[in-house]
User: Fold these one by one.
Assistant:
Number 1:
Amino acid sequence: MTTHPVSFTVNGTEHRLEVEPRRTLADTLRDQLGLAGTHLGCEHGVCGACTVLVNGEPVRACLMFAVQADGAEIRTVEGLAEGEALNPLQRQFHVNHALQCGYCTPGFLMLATWLLERPEMLDEATMRHVLSSNLCRCTGYQNILKAVRAAAQEAGKWSGPATV
Amino acid sequence: MNWVGRRVLRLEDAALVRGEGRFVGDLVAGAMAVRFLRSPVASGRILRIEAPKGALLVTGADLAGVRPIAPKLHKFNFVATDQLILPRERVHYVGQAVAAVAARTPEEAEDLAEAVHLEIEPDPPVIGLDAALAPDAPRLHPHAAGNLLVDARIATPGCAAAFAEAAHVVEIGIRSRRQNAMPLEPRGGVASYDKASGRVTLHASTQIPHLLRTGIADCLGMPEADLRVVAPDVGGGFGQKMQLFPEYVVLVWLARRHRGGFAWIEDRSENLIASAHARDQRHRLRAAFDAEGRMLALEADILADVGAFSCYPTTCGVEPLMALAEYPGPYRVAEYAAHARAVTTNTCPMAPYRGVSRPVITFGLERLLDHAARRIGMDPVELRRRNLVAEFPYRTPTGLVLDEASYLETMERAVAAADLPGFRARQEAARREGRYLGIGLSVFNERTGYGTPAFATRGMEITPGYERVELSMTPSDEVEARIGASPHGQGLRTALSQVIADELGLDPARIRIIHGDTDRTPYGWGTFASRSAVISGGACKLAAAKLAERLRRCAARMLQADAAQVELREGMAVVGATGASIPLASLARTAHHGSHLLAEEAPEGLYEAVLYDPAGTFSNACHIAEVEVDAETGGVRILRYIVAEDAGRLINPMLVDGQIQGGVAQGIANALYEEVIYDADGQILTGSLADYIPPTCAEIPEIEIHHLVTTSDASVTQAKGVGEGGAIGAPAAVVNAICDALAPFGIEIFEMPATPDRIRALLRAAQEARA
C-alpha cells in the first residue's frame, strides 16, 4: 500500500514518517514511534483509553488517521512525567489509588491534563461531564474523580469547596 | 512497625502512570500478525475455506492431531463437550474461530482475512433456554440429551414437610441477562519460538499462566517444559481471562510449525462476541416461612445458559453448581432442595465473571425476601434479622461451614448509616411531588480463599486450590518471592509485600514479588475466586515466618545470643536483652558467601518454600442503595450507595476499598445497563460499546464503605477475600431499591438489567391493569 509523508511533534520531539493513509494515529504512535503508553481499548472511539492531546485538544487516537495529524503538536502520556518525578496529576493518581490495572490510565491522564490546563476554573459538574468520556473497568471511578479534584486544588484551579 | 493494615501506596503504579506498563499488545514487535476468521452463523456445516494462493492460512484440517478442549467433572451428570481448536465440520456459535491467517502487519492480516472465502451452510440454531429445553429441540452435541451438560439435584429429607406446615409460602421467578466481563484490555497473545532451545514463549493476557501452559501443552501433545507462559501486565480480567481459549493454542502451534513469532491482539468486537459470557440464568424460587417469618425451607430451580462449550478449567458447571451449593447464603434454613441444570445453546461459551453465580443468587434470594416481607406484612430488615445466621461455625444444608462472620452486625451498621426513618420521610415528601425514591438492601456472604478440598467437592478433573510461594533473600538482602498466583491489576504485589515485610522487619520496597512467568515461579493456579490475598498471602506469611526464624537463628549464631531473643526490625536483627544487632544485609551476605559459618542454621541457604491450601472462609457485607426512578422514562439514578462489609483483617484498606468500589460499579452495570443480546438467529446485537454499555463516572455514585473486622482461624493472615463482593451485592440492592420506589404502582422487578424499557413496560402494564 502507498504511504504518505507526515511530520508532527510528539512531546516536543519532531518526527518525519511515512505512513499508510489508513493507519490510525494510535497505531502510528505505538508501532512506528514505540510510544506504547497510548492504549487501545475499543478502536471505535468509546472507551477513551487512547486519548492524546492534538494541538491542545483531547482526541481519540483510534479515530484519527496519522495523516490527519500532519503538522500537529501531539502530547501523550510519556510526556507527562518531569524527568524522574511524576507530575502532580500522575502523583495524585498514585496517592488516591485512581488506577488498578492501569490500562485506562493514560487516557484518563491525558483527558484530565486537558481539563486542568484550560484557563477556566474546574467545577464538579464539568469534571464529571468531561471524564465521563472515558471508561474504566476496575476502579468504579470515584478515586479517579478524587485524584483530578486534588490535582485541580493543587493547581489552584478547583472552583468547588476544598475536599482534600 | 506493622505494614499490614496500613494504606500503603501501590508498588505497581509508577510504571503505569508513566505509560510504561508492559501489556501484551506492547510486545508484538517482530511477530507476524494473526487474524481469526469467525463464524458468521450460529450453527452450520463448513463447506469450504479457501485463501488466496500463498497466504498463511490455518484451518481445522491443519490441526488434525491437536486434541480438543474438553474439561470434565466426575459428578452431577456432567456431559463433556469437545471444543476443537478450529472446527473441522460444524460451527456452534457466532464468533467461533474457524480459521486463522497471518501476515506482516495487522492491517494486512485483516485484508487477508477478508479475502478468504468461507462458506458455511447454516442450520436452525438453538438460541435461549426455552428453545434448548423444548422436547423437540435439536441437539447441539449428539451425546447431550435434552441439551443438558449438567443436571444436579440435592434435597434435605424434610423439605416437602416444611412446605406443608408453613404459614406462608412465597414463590418467585427471576431472570438474569447475559453479561460480558469486558476487561478494558481485550485478550491477546504473542508466541515466539527460540530456535536454539526449541522452546516457545507465549505472552498472554491471562489470569492463569501455569494452567494455560498445561492446557496448551495437553492440546498440542508437547512437553510442557518446552512452553513458557508469561502474563505481563494484565489489563483486567474479572474471570474472563482465566480460560484456555483456542486462539492461544493456535498461536503456539503456529510458532512451532513456522519457527517464528505470531501475535494476536483481539479487537473489542471479538471480545464482546467471542471471548466468554456469563450470568445468563433463570431461576424459580419457593420459600416456606413460619408465622414469625422464619424461613423453614428453600427450593431453587436453576437454569444456566452456558453456551456452546464448557469453559476450561472450571467447566460449565461453575455457574449452576455454585448456585446449587450456595443459594441459602448467610441465612439459616434447615431444609433446602435444588435442581441445577447447565443448558447448552448456540451461543458464546459461559465462563466465570466476578462473583460467578453469586450476583444472581443474591439477586434471587434478596428479591425473594423483599417479596416475602410484603406478603407477610413485615419490615424487610426485620425479616432478615430473624433469618441471618448469628452463631458460628454454622453448617449449611449443603455442607458448607460458615466461619465467624458478622451478618447481623454489618446489616445493622448499614441500616444505621442509611437512616431509614429519615429516608422514609424524604420518600413520602418526594412522592407528594410525583418523584419516586426507593431504598433497597442486600445481605450476602462471599465464599473466598478456598483451596483444593472445596473445589474437590465439585468433582473437577482439574482441581485447583493451593498456592505455593518460594522465598529467598539475595546477598544484598532484598527478598524475592516467587508466587504461583498471578495478579491482573488488583495490587497484589503491594499486598503480599506488606505481609512479608511484617514478618521480616523490612520495608515493602525491599521485596520483589515475582509472578506470572512459568519459568520463574512455582506451579500455582492464578487469580480467581477471591483467593489471591488469602491463599497466596497466607503462603507468603508462612514462608516469611520460616525465613524470619532462620534469620533469627543465623543472627543468634553471629551474635552468640539466644535465637528466641532476636527480633527483626527495620532491616536489623536485634537481641532484645543486650541491644546487640547485626544488619540483615550482613547475615544475607554471610549466608551466601560464608555459608560454612552458618552451616547449621541455614544449610539450604536463605530459601523457604511453602504451600498453603486452606479450606476457605466467608467474608460478608450488606449493601444499601437509594435510588430515584423517573416514572416517565424508566430511568434510574442512584442517589446514595452504602457498603458495610467484613473481610476480616484488612491487609491494605486502600486496596480493599478499591476492590469494593470497582465491584459495585460492575454490579450496578449488571443491575441497570449491561446486557448481551442475541436475536433468534443467534446473531449478537451488542457487538460494540455503543450497544453493550458499561457505565461511566456519570452513572456511578460515591460509595460509602464501613468496615467491620471479624477474624477467623480459617485464614492464616486473618484476611478474607474481597475481590467479588462488590459485584455480588449491588444488583440485588439496586433492584430492591427500584421496587421500593415503584411500590405505589404495585410493581416488582424480577429481571436484570432493569433497563428503562423493562421498567416502562412494567409501569404501562400496571397502568393498563388499573384502567
Number 2:
Amino acid sequence: MSIMTKALAFVIPAALALGTAGEARAQIVVTVEPPAAYIATVQPEYFEGRPVYWYNNSWYYRDHGRWSYYRSEPGFLRERRSHWVAAPRREYRGGNWGGRYHYRR
Amino acid sequence: MARTSSFVGLAGILLTAALGCGGSSPPANNPGNGGSADVAEAQPRGDVAQVGAGEDEDESTADLAEHHRHHHHGGFAAFVAISLEQLNATPEQKAAIEKIRADMFHKMEPAHEAEKTVLLALADGVAAGKFDQAKLDGAISQLSTASGQIHEAVAGELDQLHETLTPPQRAALVDKVEAHFEVWHHSNGAEEHKERDSHGGQLAMLGKELGLSADQIEKARTSFEQSIAGVPQFDRAEADAHIKAFGEAFASDKFDAKTLPTKGDLNAHMATWGITRTMKFYEAVTPVLTPEQRTKLADSIRHHANYQHQPAAS
C-alpha cells in the first residue's frame, strides 16, 4: 500500500465522520413558546427594556404578540439567574419549580 | 514530493469540507457566548382547546387552573391583582404595590362574598345529593351585580399601578393578565372532551381526587356537556377586545382606567359564565358519586369557598 493510499484510508473516514456529525447538529429544532399557565406564574427578569421569562432552558420574550427566544444566553441574564440559587426562595420563587404559585384555599 | 503535496492539498480540502458542514449548524445555546441579537422566533403552541394552556406543566400551573375553576368574581381586576406578586418588583416598589393589591382585593370583597355564598350552596347540594336551585340562582344574580361594579371601583388603583410600575413591568403585567385569561378561559370551557383528560382537564383531576371509575367519569361527562349546552356561552371576543385595549393603554405613557371601552359588563359576564359553569359541573357530577365521594367533594368545594386572598410574601 502506497503512502498516498494509507493516508487517504485515514483522511476519508475522518472527513466522513466529521461531516456526519455536522449534519446531526444541523437538524431542525422546534422551540415552542411558553404556555400561558407558566407565564402567569413565573417571575420575569427585565432585559433590553422588556420582560423576559426563563422557560425550558432559554429566555423568552414577547414582541407584538409573538414569542421569541435568545439562542445564546445574554451574560446579564445568566448572571441574574445565578442569584436564583443563592437567594432565599421567597425572593426568587421564579427559580423554584412547583413553588411559583400556591393556591392557598 | 509532488505526490505528497497533492495528498496534503486533498486532505486539507476534505477536512475543510467536513468541518465546514459541521459549522453550518445553528449556534448552540452556550451561556458563555452572550449576544442579544442572537434570537429566533418560537413556534406557537397551537390550538389551546387541544393542547391546553399549560395546566399540566407542573404543580404551580395545576394550582392556578384549580384556582381559576372556582374563582371568577374579580374578572380582569383579579387577574391584575394576582399578577402583582409575580412582577419581580424592586424593594422600593414593594410597599406601594402591596397597598394597591390589598386595596383592589378589598374592593372585590362584595363579589368575593357573593361567590362564596354560591360555592357553599353548591357544597351543601353535593353533600345532600340535591340542589336548592332558587338559592343558587339568587346568589349568582348577586355575584353578577357585584362583579359588574368592580372595574369602576378599582379604576383608581389601576391608575396608581400605572404610575408605580416601569414600562417593562407594565409590559410584564399585560403578559400576565393575558396569560391568566387564557388559563381561566381554557379551564372554564363549555366542554370536557376526553382529549382534555391528559391536559389538566377538570374531570380527570376530579377522578384522581375522588377515585372515580371510568364509567362514573363518562356518565358525568355526558351529563355536563348536555347541561352546559343550554347555557348562553361566554363571548371570548369581548374579552379579547378588552385585552387589546388594556394592553395598548397600559403600555402607553398616560393611562386612565375609566377611559377603557370595556367597563364593568365584561367582569359581570365572566363571573356569571364562570360560576354557572362551576355549578353545572358539580350538578352533573353529583348523581354519579357514592355518598362517601359526595362528602369528600363537598369538603373540597367548601375549602374553595373559604379561600382568602393572602398578603404578598415579603
